[in-house]
Design brief:
This protein has 242 residues and is α/β, with parallel strands linked by helices. The protein has seven helices and 17 strands. A five-stranded parallel sheet has the order 2-1-3-6-7. Strands 12-11-10-14-13 form a five-stranded antiparallel sheet. The protein starts with a strand and ends with a helix.
Length: 242
């Protein structure tokens, strides 16, 4: 497990580390005095699992640093550490795992890792994409479609971002899960984001219209019908168990 502590106050760094060691004496943390150093380290593999991040640092906003951390690795869990509750709502808007008031205690750290392991049991599937010289982790359910462009693939995400990955579509398609379906030679879609499968056109959320391969139209629609049936069946089974 890779853990980081980012705080410009060295005494607070040491306090957080003591609290961490009070939870598990074998857990070591990498320590940083500013966000830039933390972000640089986050780009190394493997990414951080948990980051204890001070919200208030000189000339830096911990909320912005957290957003950048999630752009590097969406799976990194952020724990905000601060002297005030004033930014609690904004902190959770960037999907923070927890919000601790200084000084950090072992009890607080125990709660952090209880939450951490609970989220890991419900872990969403993700993939690491190389964009230029940087590596980004994105959840598969964030991907709407993969679109071939010469020797690259445009990856459209649900938040509107487009990531350009320099690899063949066939290779990237193999890294997807069963939710993904090739609808023509150059496009693979996430069936979870389909709003309508027509006779000739597949319509995704945000009114994205995509043509179906002429010779495979029947097979594509059949595959989507099977997907929808399986999803509905699983939902019914879950409700009965509940």
């Amino acid at each position: 497990m890779r853990i980081a502590i980012c705080d410009d106050d060295l005494r607070e760094q040491e306090q957080t580390e003591r609290a961490l060691l009070g939870w598990d004496s074998e857990k070591n943390a990498e320590k940083f005095k500013d966000g830039n150093a933390l972000l640089e380290a986050a780009r190394k593999t493997p990414s951080f699992d948990v980051v204890f991040l001070d919200i208030f640092m000189p000339n830096e906003n911990g909320i912005d640093i957290a957003k950048e951390l999630h752009s590097i690795c969406a799976d990194t869990c952020i724990v905000f550490v601060t002297v005030s509750r004033d930014f609690a709502v904004e902190a959770f808007s960037v999907h923070a795992l927890h919000y601790l008031i200084k000084p950090v205690t072992t009890e607080g750290v125990v709660e952090v890792f209880n939450r951490f392991f609970e989220t890991r049991r419900e872990r969403r599937e993700s993939i690491v994409l190389t964009i230029g010289s940087q590596r980004h982790t994105v959840f598969l359910d964030q991907i709407m479609l993969l679109e071939n462009e010469n020797h690259a693939v445009n990856v459209l995400l649900t938040d509107g971002r487009r990531l350009k990955v320099w690899m063949p579509l066939n290779e990237l398609e193999k890294k997807m899960n069963a939710d993904f379906l090739r609808i023509n030679r150059g496009i693979v879609v996430n069936m979870a984001h389909i709003v309508n499968m027509g006779t000739d056109v597949c319509i995704l959320k945000n009114e994205i219209h995509l043509p179906l391969a002429v010779r495979q139209k029947a097979a594509i629609r059949a595959a989507y019908d099977d997907y929808v049936f399986d999803r509905l069946s699983n939902q019914k089974l879950t409700k009965k168990r509940g």
